[in-house]
Amino acid sequence: MTKLNSSILSYPSRGKYGDSKYRGNCSGFVIRDLIDTFKPKKFVEVFSGGGTGKDVAREKGYANSIHLDLNNGWDAMTDAMPTSSDFVFSHPPYFDIIDYNKVRGEYNQDDLSNKMPYADFIQKLDQVNEKIYNSLENLGRHAILIGDVRQQGHYFSIVKDMTWFGDLTNHLIKEQFNTQCAHKQYNGTFIPISHEHLLVFQKNQIWEVPIKFTKDFKRDLRALINVTWADLIKAVVEELGGTASLQQVYIKLNGCRKADHNQNWQAKIRQELRNSGYFKTVSRGNYQLA
Ligand SMILES: C[S@@+](CC[C@H](N)C(=O)[O-])C[C@H]1O[C@@H](n2cnc3c(N)ncnc32)[C@H](O)[C@@H]1O
User: Mutation test of ligand 1: which of 44, 112, 116 has the most ligand atoms closer than 8 Å to its C-beta?
Assistant: First the structure.
């Protein structure tokens, strides 16, 4: 019996469970420890891949656990959950980093690892997460294991971008072993990803569904009210290539939200240029970052 007793997980070996050659498989110890901790009556696995969860379930004495994947004919996008349960473990593709059509040897248009815009992937994942949540018995749990992805200079935090259904009861960080990045030496500021997230959501109400999602949007700095004058002036100096005159700062910040709320905004700018530690005078009426 190996209950989870820390929010940091580290399993250097994956155990004897499932197909160790199945790309993107997870350690069976994660599923074993989840089962030992939550002791579900009925265990369902979504995105079961190479059979890791099924082997753990059999070892733990679950004769009727259910393991769902395109591999065995169940499509998360179109098929209903075949049963309700008090525990679902899911391990979706991490966006398109592994092409599971190739792993399966057969293309499927609903495979979540297909090349698609990231926003479409998140939308599909949300659909599956909602389906899983709705299928839970009251007080049931959904544990999802998922990693972050870096592609073409962008960092995608799937766990942050996906919609959360239910009450988050645990957020565990799992150390990731045997990644391609792990054995390389990188120059500069690159830090390889060597962790995954294991989130546990619980259903605590029959009718009310707690939903949390991230909103992506941009605001012009000049439209913000809590920005400081020093930050606004710094932006002007940066935009102008390192040196700005007082007149240029006035012109650039005329009409910004803070100026609209301050009759004496020009005096405020002069005061800031003189007193703030951000700036230095390079010649009369011309300023640079200190
Ligand atoms: C990260 S792998 C799961 C690995 C598994 N935990 C293991 O240890 O072998 C993700 C799985 O999602 C499956 N998958 C992708 N899209 C799917 C869909 N629409 N419906 C069902 N399964 C899907 C893939 O076939 C793949 O097996």
Answer: 112
